Automatic annotation (TrEMBL):
It comes from the Bacteria. Residues 79-176 form the Toprim domain. HAMAP family: RecR (MF_00017). InterPro entries: DNA_Rcmb_RecR, DUF5063, DUF5063_sf, Rcmb_RecR, Rcmb_RecR_Znf, TOPRIM_dom. Residues 175-188 have a biased composition (Polar residues). The keyword Zinc-finger applies. SMART domains: TOPRIM. This is Recombination protein RecR. It holds the Pfam family DUF5063. A zinc finger (C4-type) spans 56-71.
Amino acid sequence: MYEGAVQDLIDELGRLPGVGPKSAQRIAFHILVADEEDVTRLAQAIDKVKATVRFCITCGNVAEAEQCRICSDPRRDPTAVCVVEEPKDVVAIERTREFRGRYHVLGGAISPIEGIGPDDLRITELLSRLADGSVGEVIIATDPNLEGRPRPPTSAASSRQWGCGSAVSRRDSPSEATSNTPTRSPSVALSKEGECCMPEVRRSVPEELDPDLQTLGEETALEALAFLTVVREVAKGAVPDSAVPVITLALSQILVTGSRLGAINDVVPAQRFEPDLGSDEDVEELRLSLAELFTGIDDYAEVIDPLTTTELSRSQLSGDIAEICAALMHGLRHHADGNMTEALWWWQFSYLATWGARAASALRAMQSILGHTRLDADEETVAEAQFDALHR
Ligand SMILES: [Zn+2]
């Protein structure tokens, strides 16, 4: 298709997970026109990660020393171990800030199709960690499906768990029928009197949903649809001059919806596993359209967690909005399947774990843009306004 080096780059990028031929082409041409400095930094980062990053001898997570940051942190509870498939699952669970124990990274999932059996994973290492009896609780947070389907894009998907026998929610549940079922949020991992058991599959209990929850679910679905419609229209360029106020309004409204989910008890579905929905709709195109629309105002500074740190990071409005859309769409798919409890569970958990914070910080940035646009004026305009005011 293209000549030599460009095509080589496209081919290499296309081999990365989640990068299709179109994206590979887009990234390659981005690199082609990017500043020399930026490209060098990218190349160096790739080199450095291969040269300096290794795997923790205890848990198998990525580490820059013999032990990873979590294993070497004395404040982390050594008696609780959460078993995950990949280092990225550790990141996803860490982002929820609810688990204070340690991890064990298996390095993949058992997949008969790909010929990956128990011997290929770090299971022997796990058993030897458990051998001395100092670990009181093991939480299995691997993908419940035998061959691991693609995960939804938000962190909550990776923190679903089979849980231990004792890992039962102590919070109030919406109905009797579901009160014995573990919640699927990592908060239950904090249960202490844990005797450990291996994963077992429970039969689902027929669900009866409280009428108030049913109503809340329907209203949430409508709000989610409204948000998606507004974002899609804005991304298409329907209101180029009022994109900022329109998105500000949409974010404010979806945050009201989220706050309602945050005000009710944990929604606990009867089934232990989230039903498989297959892969979610890709929001990458949407994100790119928004990024283009917000050129120049997309990047902003964000406080990572205002309660625990003053540390700042960078965020993009386009990324935030696309992530919120992805989370809302995932819940809408359960809703479309007639599975209201699953939809509510997902919307609530993902609001608490991911999209609530994204929406709140994006709203703060949007408000700031709106303020600057409306209030910042050049001196001449200000002088004219003063003159008018004085001589009217
Ligand atoms: Zn470690």
